[in-house]
Write a structure and sequence with these properties.
This protein is of the alpha+beta class. The protein is built from 8 helices and 12 strands. Strands 4-5-6-9-8-7 form a 6-stranded antiparallel β-sheet. A two-stranded antiparallel sheet has the order 1-2. The termini are far apart. The C terminus is likely disordered.
Length: about 260
Amino acid sequence: MDLDPTSTLTLYLQVRDAIKRSIEEKKYTDGSKLPAEHALCKLFGVSRITVIKALNMLEDEGYIYRVQGKGSFVATKKIERNLNQVNSFTESIARQGFKLTTKVISKQFLKATPHLNHLFGREESCQEDFIQIRRIRYVDEVPVAVNHSIFSIDFGAKLTEEELAGSLYDLLRNRYQLELVRQDEVLSVALADDETAKMLQLPKGFPMFLSEGTTYTVEQPYPIEISKTYFRGDKIKCRTHVLNFVYNPEDSNNSLLPEV
């Protein structure tokens, strides 16, 4: 494979870009082994140092990983979740170029408990049922998440009549004209139990991310949804942005100023 000697890019950057293109074009598939360093030297007509620099950059960028004594392998591209926005998994997946499909497992009544009543702002003695919707989310035909969503009966009953194959949040916004303004989320690690492992076609005890969320609308002070989602730990990465601010009590507008 010929490199461009007239390019302003150094040789190792050209080698990196060429391998990256091959990965993105699926010439090298997820988990497959790249040619050995000496083979890459011959392929591109460059030194071993140049190849090593290119591979180092690809590893830093998450395109490959190395196994000592075995070589370089194509890393599985992980799905990124932005924890700073109230958006749907469907939206996030589409922006990253993945194909998302959904399988609805169940739409069922859930008996009221004092804990659920408290979370939804109801009297703890209330006996009115809730609606629980369970779905498996597939990315590029691979099951990556199991979602359990709980709604109050008055609103949840409407959702049981929906197909629910797409974005639940889009449905809430567009069909029911609800403005989602806040989501409180607790992210932790967990191990797949028997049921979750079976739905995601994984062995029991597989490492998972567990997201427990509470979603609010502008229309009411109590939650519209309480959810629990199990994500495959090998398929998902989470991103958040943290700013360091201090409160300025002398500011009449109660503004926040960056700490110096």
